[in-house]
Every structure is written in structure tokens, then in C-alpha cells.
Amino acid sequence: MIKMVVTDLDETLLRTDKSISKYTVDVINKVRQRGIKFIFATARGGSAKTLVDYELFDGYVLLNGAKAFVDNRLIYERTISADIFIPFLRELSHRNFMVAAEVEGIHYANFKVNEKWSYINNFMVTDYSDVSGSADKLYVLIDDPNQIDLITPILPKELYLNLTRDNLAMIMHKAATKFNGVLAVAEEFNIPKGEIIAFGDDINDKEMLLKFGLGVAMSNAIDEIKMIADYVCDTNDNDGVAKWLEENLLRYGGN
């Protein structure tokens, strides 16, 4: 009994060029026509809307689980207060790290964010003396994975850190995980976690693949994710998510 599908975006549902194929869109629509909910969960914030049409989905989880939505309605939020993230980012700045906090869609950073990611223009270079509010996520640019050892001793107890495959340290509220965000969406639809299929490729997808009913890793996923998955599908550039759903869900009558 499968009642919901959740997928990561980058390197999973999206091709490497950040496009989504017509074939994949058609499969998503067929899945939803069967009465199966289809949502996405991503580390992205507002930039997700530039890549996918939210109307294609029944719900979505942004910012690694800091916010979850159903019908564009916020149902779950776990953010980081300024009194926690400002001293922390200032200390990292003093240690010559490039850092940023995403607050209401604006990247408050100690570097020019668009020199790293050309598509991000909503940023402000700051020393954090003029920043207020709560951050959805924090991130630190890492040159060497061993630099994590310089960050974790001063990481506030309310937060956790994940290192992505492209050496970006993502720092979130401890309750802000993709799994928790998706679980909140599932509860809105009265769907048990055992009736959910999850697709992913990176370390921040691991909990979803382990704790939901079925976990499917992309062929292009990191080895750790492929090792813990129930299945491995084709690559993101070969529409792996859509192919797996068509062959294993739609072909046999869905739920």
C-alpha cells in the first residue's frame, strides 16, 4: 500500500542541468491520478520555485525540513533564532570561514554569494550587526572535510550539521530534517510513514530512505546512500525516479 511519494530535487528528480523532463512530469501526473500524493523535499529555499512548478506537487518541504507546506500553506516550521546563529557565525567569520544565514529568502553572508552561485542575487554582505529574525538555515563553505573538526566543537547544542557531496556544511535546527518535514505533510493526509516511498542521492536524504516504507537511491547517489537503500534506480539524467515509478508502481496498479 503506497500512498505517497517523496523525492529530493537536485541530482534526483532534476537532471544535472536543473531541468525536469516531460516524461517525468507525465509520470508524476499519472501517480497523482491514482490518488497517490507526490511531494518533494529539498535543501533549497525560495530557489526551488524557479526550478519546478509547485502545482505539480501535493506538498513540499524546503530548507532541509525547516519549513513544510501543503497547498502552499505552511504547516511545519523549525528555524534558528538570531541569538543563537549570530554569535556562532561571527565566531566562524573570525576563523576565516565563509558563512551565511538564510532569513526569509535573503542570504546574509560574509562573502558575495553570487560569486559562488550565479543564480543567487538576493544576498547581503554583512558582519551580522544589522541582522534580526530567525534563520531557516545556515551554511559554511568548506575546502577540506577535515575543517568540520573546527566547527563542531562550537556548534550550538540546538543545531546539527550535514556535509553535502559538494563540501557545503549545512547547519539546521535539530528538528529541521527532511524526514520530520515530510512526516508533517504525511500527517496532514493521514498517511502512515510505512506507506511512503522516498528517493534521494545525498546524506540529507538518508533518514528518509531508512525510516519510510521504501527507500530508493539514485545510481548517481553517494555510496553511503546506495548501501542503505532498498532499491537503486537509474540516474537523474536518465529520469531514474520516473522510470522506477512507472516500472514498479504504475505498471502493477499503483496502490
From TrEMBL:
What are the annotated GO cellular component locations? cytosol
One Pfam family recorded for the sequence: Hydrolase_3
User: Known PANTHER family for this protein?
Assistant: HAD SUPERFAMILY HYDROLASE-LIKE, TYPE 3, PHOSPHOSERINE PHOSPHATASE
Q: Which GO-annotated molecular functions does the record name?
A: magnesium ion binding; phosphatase activity
> What organism is the protein native to?
Capillibacterium thermochitinicola
Question: What keywords sit in the KW lines?
Answer: Hydrolase
Q: Which NCBIfam families match?
A: Cof-subfamily, HAD-SF-IIB
For this entry, the protein name equals Cof-type HAD-IIB family hydrolase
Q: Does the keyword Hydrolase apply?
A: yes
Q: Could you list the residue ranges forming a coiled coil in this record?
A: none
- Key word Hydrolase present: yes
